[in-house]
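pls design
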């Protein structure tokens, strides 16, 4: 237990501060919690049948919107793009869609990107390629 210092001490040893006794943590559960429950309401999401991916060829300047169904692989330029699935908030289908994409080189099959892309924040998890930019626009809801 820490020693309590006198705030009125005139010799300046403690600078006017009081040290409080240490907390006793013997009441903590196995996970270190003290029985507090923090409930976070999670937004319900719906899995869509497909997605729209926007693709940009930086060399030619060509911009394409590609409709894909879940599980489908398409070729775009020198890439293969596979859509795993697309999800969106149940309460607002037009808002924050996110999709799982895998993007590979056609020539050698190397994976260039594999993960979730968020439509409202394309730079959050972007594919890094010198020629092509691809990002999720929205889920197909019908």
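designed seq:
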């Amino acid at each position: 237990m820490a020693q309590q210092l006198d705030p009125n001490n005139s010799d300046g040893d403690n600078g006017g501060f009081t040290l409080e006794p240490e907390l006793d943590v013997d009441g903590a559960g196995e996970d270190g919690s003290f029985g507090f429950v923090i409930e976070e309401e999670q937004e319900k999401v719906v899995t869509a049948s497909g997605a729209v991916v926007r693709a940009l060829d930086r060399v030619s300047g060509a911009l394409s919107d590609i409709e894909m169904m879940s599980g489908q692989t398409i070729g775009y330029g020198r890439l293969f793009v596979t859509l795993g699935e697309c999800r969106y908030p149940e309460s607002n289908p037009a808002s924050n869609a996110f999709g799982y994409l895998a993007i590979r080189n056609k020539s050698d099959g190397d994976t260039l990107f594999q993960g979730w892309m968020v439509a409202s924040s394309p730079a959050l998890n972007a594919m890094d390629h010198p020629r092509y930019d691809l990002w999720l626009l929205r889920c197909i809801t019908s």
